[in-house]
Amino acid sequence: MKTWTAKPEEIPQKWWVVDASGKTLGRLATEIASVLRGKNKPEYTPHVDTGDFVVVLNSEKIALKGKKMDQKKYYRHTGYFGSLKETTARELLAKKPEQLVTKAVTGMLPRNRLARQQIKKLKVYVGSEHPHEAQQPKPLEINSI
């Protein structure tokens, strides 16, 4: 008997839609990362992209527990000396809430070429409207505690 491995063209890719309003950021990000990698399917193969597309709506209504709104910091560097910029989660949520969700999910994926390919399947939007109605996304139930 030969070992079967998944091939990307053989695995059907579904579209899921998630409403992020009132959900905790970390718990939401772990579930989304799992679906992007394809761990919710029996055909999961670690070195093959078997994941699905995920559309996240209402990213501006995401919740953070405790004092993380003010204590959690995001860093970026412009490339010049002494130009390390830091932003709190509250500032990032006010300016670019879709980037807050994207950074959380990216941090839960492995650091390799496959993860860079999988993060492109994440579509995050402010508000409840999205341009992916033609793909007929199904609602993804995420149980936050």
How would you describe what is shown here?
By secondary structure, the chain is an alpha/beta fold. The protein has a domain at 15-65 and 99-139: Alpha-Beta Complex (Ribosomal Protein L13p, Chain: A), CATH 3.90.1180.10. 28% of the residues lie in helices and 17% in strands. It has five helices and six strands, in the order E-H-E-H-E-E-H-H-H-E-E. The strands form two sheets. Strands 5-2-1-6 form a four-stranded parallel sheet, with helices on one face. The longest helix has 13 residues, at 25-37. The radius of gyration is 17 Å and the shape is globular. The N and C termini lie far apart (44 Å).
| Lateral arrangement of strands in the main beta sheet | 5-2-1-6
**What global shape is seen?**
globular
Query: How many E strands?
Result: 6
Which runs of at least 5 residues are low in confidence (pLDDT < 50)?
none
Judged by helices, strands and strand pairing, the structural class is alpha/beta
Radius of gyration: 17 Å
**CATH homologous superfamily name of the domain at 15-65 and 99-139?**
Ribosomal protein L13
Treating each run of at least 4 consecutive H or I residues as one helix, how many helices? 5
Q: Separation of termini?
A: 44 Å
Averaged pLDDT: 94
Q: Can you tell me the CATH class of the domain at 15-65 and 99-139?
A: Alpha Beta
- SSE arrangement, N to C: EHEHEEHHHEE
Strand content range: 15-25%
Q: Can you tell me the CATH topology of the domain at 15-65 and 99-139?
A: Ribosomal Protein L13p, Chain: A
Reported CATH architecture of the domain at 15-65 and 99-139: Alpha-Beta Complex
Question: Strand count, sense and closure of the main sheet?
Answer: 4 strands, parallel
